[in-house]
Amino acid sequence: MESLESGTSQAQGSAPFQRLSTRAGSARPLGLAVVVAIALAALVGWWLTRSPIPAAGPAAEPAVPVEPPARLENPEVTRADTGLGEPGERPPAVYPAELDDPSRFEGRGKVEIHLKAPPGIELPERWTVTFTPSPARIGGDKAVARKVDVTSGPVAEIRDVQLGAYSVRASAGDLESEPYDFELRKPDEVDVVFPLTLRERGYISGRVVDARGTPVEGLPVFLLAQRGEFRREVKTDASGTYTFPKIPDGDYRVRVGTPEAALAAVEDLSFVAPSAHLRDLSTPPLGTLNLRVVDENGVGLSGVKVQGLGLLSGAFEVVTGPDGRASAGPCVGGDLKLYASDPTAGNGNAQLHFHPDEGPGEIEIRLRR
To answer: pLDDT at position 366, please?
Structure first.
C-alpha cells in the first residue's frame, strides 16, 4: 500500500504533467495565437486584392500599329476633303477660284517702262514699244496687239492697255530688248512697272554645200518669219557661207534656192541674239548653165533677157552680155525651158534636159522676127 501512494504523489507534483494540464489558466496563450493567425490571414488577403500577381508564362509582345492604306497624292495640287465618297477615295481637286473668274481680265490698266542701255550704247531719243498677246499664258486670248512710239525720253507711261497676258519688247533702229512676259489683270496687277534693256541685234549664219560636200557659191538663201511678213535674202559666197545681219529675235525658217521650191531648208529656228550658226545645208548636185543668144544670122546679141523655167532650183532670169553670152546657176538638173526676147531681133526658145555633170557646154538660142 505504501508503494502505491508514493507513486501517486510523485506523479501529481512532477513538471511534465503540469504543462499538459487542461485547467482554465492555461487557455490564454492559445487564444492569443488564434488572434495573430486571423490578423495575418486578413493582411495576406488585403495584399492579394491590392496587387494581383500575374500568371506565369511568356512575356506578351508589344502591339504593332496598323498603318492606314497608302494613297498617291500630287503635291502640286491642293485637295480638300468634302466628306463624300468611300473611305480612302481620292477627294476632288481644288483650284484657286480666281483662275475661273473671267472678270479678272475685264477692263484697262497702265504699264510703265523704264528704258536702259548697256555701257557704250547711247539711249535713243525715239523708240518703240510693241505689245504682243502671249499665247502660252492665261489671258493671252484677252490681250490686244499694240505698238506705241515713244518720244518722251527713257520712261514711257502707257495707259488704257487692255487687261490680258502680253509679251512686250522695246526697239530702236538696230537695237532691241529681250521680250518681257507679264499679266495685266485684276485685282492687284492693273498697274505694272518694269525695265527693258536695249542691246544690239544679232546675226544668223550658215553654209551651203552640194551632194559632194563642195561649197556652193552664188545660191540665194531666204530668211522668213514663221509669223508675219519679215523676209530677207542673201547669196552664198565662194566658201558657201551666208550671213543675215541685224536680225530681231524671233521664230524663222531658212530656205535655200527659192521659198516655194527649196533645195534645202531649216523649217524651225528660234533665234535669240547675239548669234546663231546653223548646220550645213546640203543640196542636190548643182551646175552652171551657159547660153548664147544670136540673131537670124548667128550674130551674138547683148542686152537680151532670157528666162529659164522647169528646174527644181527655181525660175531664173539673166541678161546677155558681150557677144550674146550669159550664165545661170547654180542649177539643179532636169527638164529646162528657155525663153529669150528682144524688141528688134524677135523671140526664141529652147528645150533641153540639163545635167550638172553632163550638160552641154553652151546652149544657143536663135531669135526670129
So the answer is: 94
Q: Residue 80 has what pLDDT?
A: 46
137, three cell numbers: 499664258
The total number of structural domains in the chain stands at 3
Split at pLDDT 50, 70, 90, the class of 313 is confident
Residue 205 has pLDDT above 60, yes or no: yes
CB neighbour list of residue 333: distance below 8 Å, 6 or more residues apart: 284, 285, 287, 311, 353, 354, 355, 356, 359
Q: Which pLDDT does position 28 carry in this prediction?
A: 61
Tell me the DSSP string of 19-82.
HT--SGGGSHHHHHHHHHHHHHHHHHHHHHHHSPPPPPSPPPPPPPPPPPPP----TTS-B---
Per-residue model confidence (pLDDT) at position 17: 37
The single residue listed with the C-alpha cell 560636200 is: 213
Report d(CA 238, CA 280) in Å as an integer: 15
* Residues 315-325, mean pLDDT to the nearest whole number: 90
Q: Are 222 and 255 in contact (CB under 8 A)?
A: yes
CA 331 to CA 353: how far, in whole Å?
12
Q: How many residues does the chain have?
A: 369
Query: Can you give the CATH number for the domain in which 339 is found?
Result: 2.60.40.1120
266, 296: one domain:
no
What cell numbers appear for 50 in the block?
491590392
Same domain for 271 and 299: no
Q: Is residue 129 predicted with pLDDT exceeding 60?
A: yes
| Residue 155, domain extent | 102-199
Rounded CA-CA distance 62/45 in Å is 32
